[in-house]
Task: inverse folding
């Protein structure tokens, strides 16, 4: 079961190394996996100095909890593991099979290329630069070459952020500190908590008794956790809940690497995109730009049960835009959508409406864009294309990935998102690029734009 290798255009093995530090959950913040530009000395190996360990998608928790969380979630709320027979089936059959599967599947052992655990951070050195390309690099021309903008990323419903680790590492290699948040309010398939326990996925009420406040309440907590991640990473005093010297030292090194004045960017996939929309409405939001990857902006149970409910989501963002006019125009946004989600009429209308709320007023020139990637599916934004061999993807995930070539689409997503980041960070010395113009030219009419791979081959 050989999976597809990560192409050099996504994450270069010869480019600058990437470090990653894991911060477990505390009472003050959820678990965080922080990717950052690392020192080139990371890849230097001598008899006296060993290279830091390479990092895989599941190095922080292991693959087993991920598989267990998804299986338990798929069994539904009725499988409460309270009855004796259910417990016996789970403990004696399901769990051993999942442990065996986590050992067999290659993704449990796969490494992210050129990514190292607790690697030394990038230092001020003219010989060390971020990965240079025509569409990236916000900080390589910055007056502080050892300091970088901050991105805080929110994962999708049932996800953990591990399925977006490659995307975060690709951003970090191009000159950003990226905090991948593992949400702990019940929307992840599993979540390690501060007290040492694990919270499984929390199912919403059945459709016949659906609580329209369930998802909005979750999203509010998730938005607060994005704020908590920012507060933790930029704090100036020691967190009283953490007595680990290594924990505090790792944080202080990252703080020297970050420069929030260049930009604090919020990014999210699917449910995480809705989280970002909610976070922008929080009091004293620190975010200066927002990236929405295939956002889930409409809830509709009317097709499931008679008399069901439907509403645009999250309500505070839409309510503000409709009752008080445009949302804060100082926050430029990019909506990057799959063809699959764009084909859902009600969902796409909600996406267009939210994009209208973010439109700049006449006094600013901040962009608000919707770009649809043709022939793509919702899972085109996730790393699953690198976890499984092509025959498995073609047979079981064709609908979720769309007809487009998945690796080319993933590469295009990396280039477009980095182009947007480069456009919106505070950097007076940055230069425009042709790829940047292509990536941001489709405005809120939802124009389909060819992938950059197709543009290059034309």
Result:
């Amino acid at each position: 079961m050989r999976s597809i290798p990560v192409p050099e255009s996504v994450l270069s093995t010869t480019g600058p190394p990437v470090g990653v530090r894991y911060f477990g959950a505390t009472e003050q913040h959820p678990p965080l996996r922080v990717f950052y530009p690392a020192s080139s000395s990371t890849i230097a190996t001598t008899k006296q100095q060993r290279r830091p360990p390479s990092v895989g998608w599941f190095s922080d928790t292991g693959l087993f909890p991920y598989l267990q969380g998804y299986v338990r979630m798929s069994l539904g709320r009725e499988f409460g593991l309270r009855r004796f027979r259910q417990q016996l089936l789970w403990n004696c059959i399901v769990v051993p099979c999942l442990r065996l599967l986590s050992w067999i599947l290659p993704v449990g052992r796969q490494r992210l290329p050129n990514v190292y655990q607790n690697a030394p951070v990038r230092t001020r050195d003219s010989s060390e630069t971020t990965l240079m390309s025509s569409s990236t690099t916000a900080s390589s021309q910055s007056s502080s070459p050892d300091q970088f903008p901050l991105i805080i990323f929110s994962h999708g419903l049932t996800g953990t952020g591990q399925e977006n680790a490659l995307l975060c590492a690709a951003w970090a290699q191009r000159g950003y500190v990226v905090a991948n948040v593992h949400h702990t309010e019940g929307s992840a398939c599993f979540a390690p908590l501060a007290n040492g326990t694990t919270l499984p996925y929390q199912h919403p009420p059945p459709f016949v008794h659906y609580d329209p406040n369930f998802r909005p309440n979750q999203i509010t907590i998730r938005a607060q956790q994005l704020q908590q991640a920012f507060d933790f990473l930029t704090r100036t005093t020691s967190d009283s809940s953490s007595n680990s010297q290594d924990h505090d030292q790792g944080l202080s090194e990252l703080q020297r690497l970050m420069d929030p004045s260049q930009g604090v960017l919020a990014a999210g996939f699917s449910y995480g995109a809705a989280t970002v929309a909610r976070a922008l409405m929080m009091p004293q939001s620190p975010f200066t730009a927002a990236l929405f990857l295939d956002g889930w902006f409409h809830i509709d149970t009317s097709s499931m049960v008679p008399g069901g409910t439907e509403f645009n989501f999250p309500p505070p963002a839409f309510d503000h835009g409709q009752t008080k006019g445009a949302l804060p125009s100082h926050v430029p946004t990019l909506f990057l959508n799959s063809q699959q989600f764009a084909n859902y009429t009600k969902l796409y209308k909600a996406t267009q409406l939210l994009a209208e709320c973010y439109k700049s007023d006449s006094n600013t020139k901040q962009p608000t864009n919707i770009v649809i990637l043709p022939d793509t599916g919702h899972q085109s934004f996730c790393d699953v294309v690198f976890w499984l061999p092509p025959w498995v993807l073609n047979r079981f995930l064709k609908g979720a990935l769309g007809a487009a070539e998945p690796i080319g689409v993933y590469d295009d997503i990396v280039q477009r998102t980095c182009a947007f980041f480069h456009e919106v960070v505070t950097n007076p010395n940055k230069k425009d690029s042709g790829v940047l113009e292509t990536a941001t030219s489709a405005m809120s009419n939802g124009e389909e734009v060819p992938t950059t791979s197709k543009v290059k081959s034309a």
